[in-house]
Amino acid sequence: MEFDTPQTPDDALKRLLEGNQRFVAEETLHPRSGFDRVRELAASQKPFAVLLCCADSRVVPEILFDQGLGDLFVVRIAGNYVEDGILGSIEYAVQYCDVRLIMVLGHERCGAVQATVSAVFEGKKFAGSIAHLIEAITPAVESTRKHPGDQVENAMRANILHNIETICNSEPFLKPLISQGALKVVGGRYDLDSGIVTLF
Predict the structure, then answer these.
(1) What pLDDT band is residue 2 in, cutting at 50, 70 and 90?
(2) Tens of pLDDT along 36-85?
(3) Domains within the chain, CATH numbers bracketed
(4) b/e 174-195 (16+ beta carbons within 10 angstroms → b)
(5) Cα 200 from chain centroid?
(6) C-alpha distances in angstroms, 33 versus 16, 38, 60, 63, 66?
(7) What does each C-alpha distance from 180 to 13, 66, 156, 165, 167 come to in angstroms?
(8) Which CA distances in Å does 74 have to 48, 101, 109?
(9) Is 63 buried (19+), middle (13-18) or exposed (0-12) by CB count in 10 A?
(10) Is 53 helix (H, G, I), strand (E, B) or coil?
(11) What is the secondary structure of 185-200 as a DSSP string?
């Protein structure tokens, strides 16, 4: 199967979701993963999407979206949140690699979100640099204080939406492209049990 480079944000999203469908159906193609692709990419890269996702070892975008070498510009940090270095990485992909789709991908039972929920709602203390991570995720968790249902699930979703908002309001570079429709930002939830990525 040949894969053309997606020309629009919607084309890029379609390609991601089709790859996830193959992954879930256990019909993965493992495209563009041979040494010919390594040689092809040696001089430059042209990913079609940025994935901001958690550092969790179970959430590997190239596998769960059935993509190959050089297809995705992946930025990983526990809790998939935006800070200056993360934002700079995203801006680099958009500005210099001409990426037109950004997905903020969270997942169920996220350990970073669980830790933040414990800190915010139960007063649990964490030592070292984990405290910095919790501080970054706290605003999203706080916003769910009065929500019914599963606290961690609510917080995970709120965290994705909070970080989408941060990206969409980023000036001077990202916000104008988003306003013009040249760049799309979406949220996704990865289900650890089923392998399915759901957009919201």
Answers:
(1) low
(2) 876 777 787 899 999 999 999 999 999 999 999 999 999 999 999 999 99
(3) 9-199 (3.40.1050.10)
(4) beebbeeeebbbbbbbbeeeee
(5) 13
(6) 16, 8, 15, 11, 10
(7) 17, 30, 29, 16, 15
(8) 11, 12, 21
(9) middle
(10) strand
(11) EEEEEE-TTT--EEE-
The percent helix, strand, coil of the chain (3-state, each to 5) is 45, 15, 40
The token pair that represents 70 in the structure block: 């050089």
The tokens 């070292």 sit on which residue?
Answer: 128
Candidates 90, 93, 105; CA nearest to 53 is 105
pTM tops 0.85 = yes
DSSP 93-133: HHHHH---EEEEEEETT-HHHHHHHHHHHH-----TTHHHH
